[in-house]
Amino acid sequence: MCGENDFNKFALLLAAVFLAGCTSAPQDEVSIRSAEVGFSAKAEAARSEQPKEAGEAKAAEKEKPAAEPKSKQAGNPINELNQPGIAPETLSIPSIGVEADVTHLGVTDTGEMAVPDNGEELSWFSPGYRPGQRGRSVIAGHVDDLDGPAVFWDLTELEPGDEIFVSGDDRELRFKVHTMESVPLDLADVDSVFGYHSSPELVLITCSGTYDYDRGTREERLIVYASLVQE
Amino acid sequence: MKKLSVSLVAMLVLFSLLGSLVMADEHGDMAKVRVLHASPDAPAVDVYVNGDLTLEEVPFKTDSGYLEVPAGTHDVEVFAAGTEYAAGEGVLQADLEVEAGKAYTVAAANLLESIEFVVAEDSMEVTEGQAKIRVGHLSPDAPAVDVGIIGGDALFSGAEFPGITDYAEVAPDTYDLEIRLPDGTQVLPLEGTELAADTVYSVFAVNTVDSLEVIALVDYEAAASPDEMPTTGLGTPEQSQSMWLLVGGALFLVAASGLVWRKRFQ
């Protein structure tokens, strides 16, 4: 009898634990997946190399006019700075199987970067920099929707060097991932994430961290930085 | 040449191993610095910042693009490319002080024997819909020049080596510009120069006067940013992954209760 009673208690306890588990962190896969992410491949070596490559290209292209009589440089060097970028229509990331349409959105009534109302599409912050223009062009997507995983569910799986393709205006641009960080909302430097950079960068954003019921959103944002590969 | 000259020139700035780490959490205390090699007879150089190799083999007429560096004072030393680093033995050394939120151009100018740094603060703003431009005279043996519209007014007058002018704000348009002597003699034509809206330009005259040429750089392009990050999740933890656990738990509870009741009434 005593043993039976214990069994009953155990069964109830088990059920209670099972229920309690539903709201505890270990069940929140988004949180688990973004807990230990982050890298920066743009370490010292890459940074040193960047100006080197750019320098070689520039030096080569300007050597000719320097050798010629000064009257005509090959082109107007100021006009060669023109780098307008594209209005993005689609984005693909082969390494994690993402292929999505890109809508053009601005800000919400509360000043947030606006996002699509569905889990399949991405949004480009169109008042900001265009992909391919100098500066950080930002494209956001949902990590999950009411049915489960959404377009940027696997963004945490990206690795340094992974390629991102952005198409629009009959051109395709190729970017390479160099940095990933998961930043608490309160610490995110919005002006920097959306800010000027002397070369074209693509920034992808989705939600990460644990769910904050008071704010109605996750506590962190996963931010992926990629730099344009000049073809 | 590279190996021989301990002498060299050039550039500057930044960074270090800390750079990438800093990026994650200290955006607020960062400055931007760009290095330009404008010494015509100096070889390519390596730049060490606070003792760390930061830029490698920077050749003449090359700029580094903006590098993010912590605000504060940085020890910048320049060596001929490939030279082994030894503190205090660089060809050029400067303690560069940079303020948070500001941007700078650090040019290594003049001939090798007189190499010197020319530092200017760069503008990170422009009136909406306008263009901004300035010129830098970094040609060591060229006389003072004006930059202006061909057959028209000067935008910049009396620019002298080594100097960088203030910015002039102009309407975005295509301009037939020229570099000319104050008496009107053309030194270098820059016809059909397109200046785009919301863009800040620096145009540097470099090399010796008999080979004078121009390096053009964009200092800044304006674009909007939102006040807040996007809300990029439509779901909550319960509704997706945990929904089935919730249902399962409830069923189990019902079953267990039934078991208890059954036992009790047996």
TrEMBL record, chain A:
CDD domains per record: Sortase_F
Domain of life: Bacteria
Comp. bias regions, Polar residues: 73-82
Pfam family name, one: Sortase
Basic and acidic residues composition-biased segments: 44-71
Keywords on record: Hydrolase
An example molecular function term from Gene Ontology annotations: hydrolase activity
Location of the active site: H142, C207
Region (Disordered): 41-89
This protein's name: Class F sortase
Species: Planococcus maitriensis
UniProtKB/TrEMBL annotation, chain B:
UniProt domain DUF4397: residue ranges: 31-147, 150-227
Signal peptide: 1-24
Pfam family, one: DUF4397
Residue ranges of the TM segments: 243-261
Keywords: Membrane, Signal, Transmembrane, Transmembrane helix
The keyword Lipoprotein appears for this protein: no
Identification of the protein by name: DUF4397 domain-containing protein
